[in-house]
Amino acid sequence: MEIYSSEFLSTLLLIIGIDLVLAGDNAIVIAMAVRNLPAEQSRKGILYGTAGAVVIRIIATLMFVKLLEIPYLMLVGGIALTWIAYKLLVEDDEQDVEAAGSLREAIKTIVIADAAMGLDNVLAVAGAAHGSYLLVIIGLLISIPIVIWGSTMISGLMNKYPIIIYFGAGILALTAGKMITSEQAYIGFFKANPSLKYLVIGLVIAGVITAGRVTKLRKARKYNIG
Questions:
Q1: Is residue 79 situated within a structural domain?
Q2: Range of 206's domain?
Q3: Model pTM?
Q4: What is the pLDDT of residues 25-51, one digit of tens each?
Q5: Does residue 52 fall inside a structural domain?
Q6: In this structure, is residue 201 part of a structural domain?
Q7: How many CB atoms lie under 10 A from the CB of residue 51?
Q8: CB atoms within 10 A of CB 157
């Protein structure tokens, strides 16, 4: 994949989109971890904690990129990401992160919480990168400043305009579909039958959105009845 090619740039945009879609939890963790610190320490906690989380996330993502080369792991990863996309639609995440009493504790809390919660992001980015370490690093480096300063706003917009959540789930489902059709065991078949490749990707996206919508409507009816 050549730098500045349309494929490279479109994949980079996809990775940035994935990072932003999954940024809401990061914003909550960061805000809660530093909320009891003085302003100066709070700023340092956000900066150092996020930097540590980014390093761990880059290492973990690069490891996943390599692991996805193992036969059938791309397929398994695509199926797992399909489930993650569905959960994004139907789950109401509530993070319970204890406020840290010192700068050191805040940094530790941010790094550990991000590592524990970041599996979906790592899997999605690794799958979207299709073996390109450069794309992983560039995508994360571009996304992180936006996550630090804008993820709270993004999270708020998702709550205010639910359609954004569906768009985000669609991005993850698109990545999942690409991973499934890029599995080495089937890639030859899909190259010979490109229409079927796009059909599978389309079915994954439609299935996630439809299943998520139906589940949300059922939940809404259940709570209204109760």
A1: yes
A2: 6-225
A3: 0.74
A4: 666 667 667 777 787 887 788 778 878
A5: yes
A6: yes
A7: 15
A8: 13
